[in-house]
Amino acid sequence: MKVAFISLGCSKNLVNTEQMMALCREAGYTVTGEPDGADVAVLNTCGFIDAAKSEAIDHILALGQLKAEGRLGKLLVAGCLSQRYREDIRQELPEVDGMLGTGSYTDVVEAVEALTRGEHPERFGDIHHTDDDGLRIVTTPSYTAFLKIAEGCSNGCAFCIIPKLRGRYRSRSMEHLLEEAKALAESGVQELIVIAQDITRYGMDLKDGSTLAGLLRELCRLPFHWIRLHYLYPEAVTDELISVIASDPKILHYLDIPIQHCNDGILTAMRRRSTKAELEALFAKLRAAMPDVVLRTSLICGLPGEGEAEFEELCAFLKEQKLQRAGVFQFSPEEGTLAQQMENQVPPEVAEQRVEKVQAIQADIMDQWNEERLGGVEEVLCEGFDSQEGCYVGRTWADSPEIDGRVLFTAAGKIPAGTFVQVRLTGVSDGDLTGEIEEE
């Protein structure tokens, strides 16, 4: 039995895919990433915003075509799209043979077996339940891996559907996390990326004294070279946490802090818990503790009620704060969210123009920051030789994989992927830094 896996969406979804892969391998199936020729394809989907839904549907139709051509047996759709739109999938996508909701990832083997019997399994278990054993087949490069420390979210932002799809926030036990992290370290992982919808609230639900700061102290005892953090919600960043991040050299001073906006009225409408003054104070505190800190954020343009004054306030805030990284998104009125029902909806074309303006502001900030780095030497994680570019490709500590930029560098000798090297930065090419290895 050959079972193919395709994972869409975020890194948290990828970890769930890796868990399903491990369960299928344990059951004796051959696990692959190639659906052509497979007995069953498992498509783990995102259903967060329109673009993600469209991507998932495109994949379903493409896999359906493989089935029609006799090159694929059955199609099992898992994840957020099936959790959110099970009735629509059932009625409108006959290509789908079975579904798993976000509370039923661990039922994948039973679902595959049901498919082979000609059944149409639909399993939608408790979305507030978390499987804690950490069994996975890691699919990222051997030197990088994610550690998902919690499931779900309880923040209840007005624009977000995730709590309804993924359940309330549930921290994994410190014991299981450290056991999983130790195994990753022993397998050769050099860059550990700590993830959850909100890592700052780790442990608050456990009532056993567990905190993110405490977890990080323990992770730093393991032989990782870099520990990267995604995402820290601003109102839950404590002085203790800042102290731990600032003091241990393994924890990168790259902090992904989604703020979404800066105008107090818009933040209140979003049901965010920080004010503009509090955001400014936090950024100042982080920069005082870590002068080299790189701040990344997420922003939404076009939330209902955002007028020109609120938008210009956001632009002025960004020009003043000079956050080095930002993902900018157009508001999407998702059904089932509070924001969809709000008055004063912003016309989509206006929201789109605002996104473009913010992206232009951020591009200028990035260009200026990159120019300031030229001539310096930075540690780079080599990710291999790029034959198209004709040079090696890697990332600095300030570049998260598949999110930020790259470093294109030359070297006299052979540099294996996963090696840390010192690179002198000499230029910028289409947003990527260029350089040459610094010989010892």
UniProtKB/TrEMBL annotation:
Entries under Gene3D superfamilies matching the protein: Methylthiotransferase, N-terminal domain, Nucleic acid-binding proteins, tm_1862 like domain
Cell compartment(s), UniProt: Cytoplasm
Keywords tagged on the record: 4Fe-4S, Cytoplasm, Iron, Iron-sulfur, Metal-binding, Ribonucleoprotein, Ribosomal protein, S-adenosyl-L-methionine, Transferase
Residue numbers binding [4Fe-4S] cluster 2: C153, C157, C160
Leader sequence segment: none
Record-listed [4Fe-4S] cluster 1 binding positions: C10, C46, C80
PROSITE patterns assigned: MTTASE_N (PS51449), MTTASE_RADICAL (PS01278), RADICAL_SAM (PS51918), TRAM (PS50926)
GO molecular function: 4 iron, 4 sulfur cluster binding; aspartic acid methylthiotransferase activity; catalytic activity, acting on a tRNA; metal ion binding; protein methylthiotransferase activity
SMART domains listed in its UniProt record: Elp3
Gene Ontology BP terms: tRNA methylthiolation
Domain (TRAM): residue spans on this chain: 371-439
Names of the cofactor(s): [4Fe-4S] cluster
UniProt xrefs under SUPFAM superfamilies: Radical SAM enzymes (SSF102114)
Cofactor note: Binds 2 [4Fe-4S] clusters. One cluster is coordinated with 3 cysteines and an exchangeable S-adenosyl-L-methionine.
A Pfam family it matches: Radical_SAM
Domain spans labelled MTTase N-terminal: 1-117
GO cellular component term, pick one: ribosome
Catalyzed reactions per annotation: L-aspartate(89)-[ribosomal protein uS12]-hydrogen + (sulfur carrier)-SH + AH2 + 2 S-adenosyl-L-methionine = 3-methylsulfanyl-L-aspartate(89)-[ribosomal protein uS12]-hydrogen + (sulfur carrier)-H + 5'-deoxyadenosine + L-methionine + A + S-adenosyl-L-homocysteine + 2 H(+)
Keyword 4Fe-4S: yes
Main location: cytoplasm
Entry similarity comment: Belongs to the methylthiotransferase family. RimO subfamily.
Matches recorded under NCBIfam families: 30S ribosomal protein S12 methylthiotransferase RimO (TIGR01125), MiaB/RimO family radical SAM methylthiotransferase (TIGR00089)
Function statement: Catalyzes the methylthiolation of an aspartic acid residue of ribosomal protein uS12.
Protein's recorded name: Ribosomal protein uS12 methylthiotransferase RimO
